[in-house]
Specification:
The complex is a heterodimer of chains A (229) and B (360). Chain A has 229 residues and is mostly helical. Chain A is built from eleven helices and no strands. Chain B has a six-stranded mixed sheet, with helices on both faces. The longest helix of chain B is centred in the middle third of the chain and has 17 residues. The chains are: A mainly alpha (229), B alpha+beta (360).
């Protein structure tokens, strides 16, 4: 193998954290995209702004807020620990939560755009054929917005691989548990003689990012061909 | 059995105020100029648009009654809807589009997949993606899909409007065979009188959101507002008759219409079959004596009922030919020279060559 033990550990951890992050945020992003696109209610603008907050806040602030809410003594963190035995602080699940929050707006955005492009007329047609609300969403709306869902998931996955500030603030920098690629790179730079490792980690990050973009493009093309556009 | 519809709805300056009844099974044409509210009314019937007040009753099923707070949602109305733009699901192949409807049918099927594929000739299209279909094919699939949901009423909103004349001709015969072979009542929206003529049994006339007149097609074909929409050249009575037989020597088919007999060219028909003939006002000639020595084959004896001003110094003469009204256009000069007036006995003459009978 051309990767050192440290490098492959950081790579595997990054992929694991990013996967958990996407799986965690996907259902919530879908729900919020739907609510923000299809529902008219008071406070919609506020909710919209709230969803976009991680885009404009310094990641350290997001990490700090997570620490307050999900820390061992935080209201949600202590409840999760007590009821489900889930510990977030200093764990890879915590890292996944931090990256999920940071990449959430990107995912919601991609889904909203594709949902806005779904022809409501097709849902009406399904309705006259006897399809109820959930049936319509599952069989018409969701398949038609699939390109956006996939694009959102891939963008969020790539962003999760690269998240630094929120992760290091919330779950610290623990080898094998929370030291993802960018954290490993940062650590290497802080270590005397770590230049080569830093460069190698940077290359790995570039290859991953490029791979993500190509994969996303390939998916988009396939879906477009399927829908005949 | 009856379809009863009443609906009131305001949308900006537009006000829908509709009211009609159709004996079922039958085909009612919602006829009127573009933008008169036909689609809005159809959407209210389907339940896709809410009416401020209204009623939709099909046989004994109350689908909407705002007075009694009954609003059945569209997915439970069992109303098939063929949209102007077909609205096939682009992520499903033709066969899957059809199955989508069939799987969700709420009642035991009265028409199966094979029957619909056969009726609409969809076999060669089944494995296609929807974007590979021509406009006419798309509409045939859309009609099939609506039928497979086992509807108790079929709404067709200008299904042929986006097709050119030859494509239209590809779909119309299928609609005719649906009407004849399945007893599903239909509401057919159109501003094309030719389609109405071929498909409808009844006509509801709409103008700026209001249903202003309704009746069976023959009666409505003479309505002044219908005449205004279809244009002077298309004005004429639509009469239904019964085939008496075919003369072997001339090849002409004799059709009993009211108390007269028309001779028409038509293909193979059996005695007793029903035919529909449009007698265009511009094609009719009026005589006050029994005509002789003319090439014209058809003499319809009748009595002048009324005389109305028509386009370009002509009159429209309504003639009762034994319980059925027909219309003839003559110049005002002819009206006065022949002394035409209500009550006068006349003969209406029409060339066989100008008649195009259609089976109903």
């Amino acid at each position: 193998m051309w990767l050192s033990a440290n490098e492959s550990e950081a790579l595997a951890l990054s992929l694991s954290v990013a996967t958990r992050s996407v799986l965690l945020s996907l259902p919530f992003a879908l729900l919020l995209a739907w609510v923000l696109t299809r529902k008219q209610f008071h406070g919609r603008t506020v909710l919209d702004a709230f969803v976009h907050l991680p885009l404009v806040l310094p990641p350290v602030v997001v990490g700090y807020i997570l620490l307050l809410l999900f820390g061992a003594r935080g209201p949600i963190g202590s409840w999760l620990d007590r009821v489900f035995g889930i510990e977030l602080i200093f764990t890879r699940n915590g890292a996944a939560l931090a990256t999920a929050v940071m990449s959430f707006p990107l995912m919601v955005r991609a889904m909203r755009i594709s949902l806005e492009n779904v022809d409501r007329g097709l849902e009406d047609a399904a309705r006259t054929l006897g399809a109820g609300a959930f049936d319509r969403f599952a069989t018409i709306t969701l398949p038609l917005m699939l390109p956006g869902v996939l694009a959102g998931a891939i963008t969020a996955f790539s962003a999760a691989l690269g998240e630094f500030g929120a992760v290091i603030t919330f779950v610290s920098n623990i080898p094998g548990e929370t030291r993802t690629l960018p954290l490993a790179l940062y650590t290497a730079l802080q270590t005397p003689g770590g230049d080569t490792e830093a460069a190698r980690l940077a290359i790995i990050s570039c290859v991953l990012g490029l791979g993500g973009l190509l994969l996303s493009e390939w998916f988009a093309r396939r879906v477009r061909r399927m829908l005949g556009r | 059995m009856m379809l009863k519809v009443a609906a009131k709805k305001h949308r900006g300056v537009f006000a829908l105020d509709a009211n009609f009844e159709l004996p079922t099974p039958g085909v009612v044409a919602l006829f009127g100029r573009s933008g008169c509210g036909k689609t809005t009314l159809v959407n209210v019937i389907a339940g896709l648009l809410a009416a401020e007040s209204g009623q939709v009753v099909l046989d004994d099923a109350v689908l909407l009654d705002t007075g009694r707070n009954i609003v059945v949602p569209p997915e439970k109305r069992r109303i098939g809807y063929v949209f102007q733009d077909a609205r096939l699901f682009p992520h499903l192949k033709v066969a899957a589009n059809l199955r989508y409807a069939f799987k969700r049918a709420a009642v035991a099927p009265f028409v199966g997949l094979d029957r619909v594929v056969d009726l609409l000739d969809l076999g060669p299209l089944m494995a296609r993606q929807t974007h590979e279909l021509s406009g006419g094919e798309r509409q045939r699939v859309a009609i099939g899909r609506a039928l497979l949901s086992q509807p108790s009423l079929l709404l067709l909103d200008e299904p042929l409007a986006s097709l050119d004349a030859s494509r239209r001709e590809e779909v119309l015969p299928y609609l005719e065979s649906l009407r004849d072979e399945l007893a599903v009542p239909m509401v057919y929206v159109s501003h094309n009188f030719d389609e109405v003529l071929r498909l409808a049994t009844h006509l509801v006339l709409m103008e700026s959101g209001k249903t202003i007149a309704q009746g069976d097609l023959g009666e409505m074909s003479l309505h002044p507002r219908v005449r205004a929409i279809i244009g002077a050249d298309a004005v004429g009575a639509i009469v239904d008759g019964t085939v008496l037989g075919t003369d072997s020597s001339s090849g002409l088919t004799r059709v009993q219409v009211a108390s007269s007999v028309l001779r028409v060219h038509c293909g193979e028909v059996v005695p007793g079959a029903r035919l529909r003939v449009q007698l265009l006002a511009r094609d009719l000639i009026v005589a006050t004596e029994a005509p002789r020595h003319l090439s014209v084959r058809n003499y319809l004896k009748g009595v002048v009922m009324s005389i109305a001003d028509d386009v370009e110094d002509s009159d429209l003469i309504a003639i009762d030919i034994g319980g059925v009204l027909i219309m003839a256009r003559v110049t005002k000069a002819a009206t006065s020279e022949l002394g035409l007036a209500p009550g006068k006995a006349v003969w209406a003459l029409v060339k066989t060559a100008s008649l195009r009978p259609r089976a109903i």
